[in-house]
Design a protein that fits this description.
Number of helices: 4
Shape: globular
Distance between the termini: 22 Å
Number of strands: 11
Oligomer: single chain
Strand content: 25-35%
Largest sheet: 7 strands, mixed
Strand order of the largest sheet: 6-5-9-8-7-10-11
Length: about 200
């Protein structure tokens, strides 16, 4: 078995030992009941995270920092990592919203992470305005300084990651200038096939 980026083989499964409470920081290192695994360490709270700028009403206040991966637990969570809240993202984000709504019984979540300084008020406002302008109500819109962890290279417009059961199930990047209907459809097809 060959594991994808950000995962390692533990037994017969590829896991992210930075987030998997059953293999936290290494294979077989389980967290205690009530603890989460964040950055490869067991604890009562997540380390790091993203600062919420708008989107879904999920109990996290705008301006608060949250680790959505920790909150989701084993449930599916769609992440998009990108730089700017621009209109080329709208079709993909709307499709992710539709997949989240279709999987409400599984408590699926969607998080659109914009890379930057969480203290940058102008960027936070542009992100919030993007959400309002496009009526985004089923995904969280956040800003994170953790971009280097997610390998969003200079020639990519976005990286899309699908987590489920603490495992990266899909990781794909869209090149700059290639965020079109075809790229969006491919991401939706792959995600739908994985989550069946």
């Amino acid at each position: 078995v060959t594991c994808g980026p950000g995962t390692k083989l533990c037994g017969k499964a590829c896991v992210d030992d930075q987030k998997d409470p059953g293999n936290c920081g290494g294979c077989g290192k389980a967290c205690a009941d009530g603890e989460v695994c964040s950055a490869g360490q067991c604890g009562l709270e997540c380390v790091g995270g993203s600062t919420k700028c708008g989107g879904i009403q999920d109990g996290v206040a705008v301006g608060k920092t949250v680790c959505y991966t920790c909150r989701a637990g084993d449930e599916p969570i769609f992440y998009v990592f990108t730089r700017e809240p621009n209109d080329s993202l709208v079709k993909l984000v709307k499709q992710i919203e539709a997949m989240v709504v279709a999987r409400k019984e599984r408590k699926a979540a969607g998080v659109i992470n914009f890379l930057g300084d969480p203290k940058d008020e102008k960027l936070r406002q542009r992100i919030a305005d993007f959400g309002t302008r496009h009526s985004l109500q089923n995904v969280s819109l956040t800003i994170t300084a953790d971009g280097p962890k997610f390998v969003l290279s200079d020639d990519h417009e976005a990286t899309v990651i699908l987590f489920e059961n603490g495992i990266i199930r899909l990781r794909t990047a869209v090149e700059r200038g290639k965020f079109d209907d075809e790229a969006t459809a491919a991401i939706v097809r792959e995600s739908t096939a994985i989550l069946k």
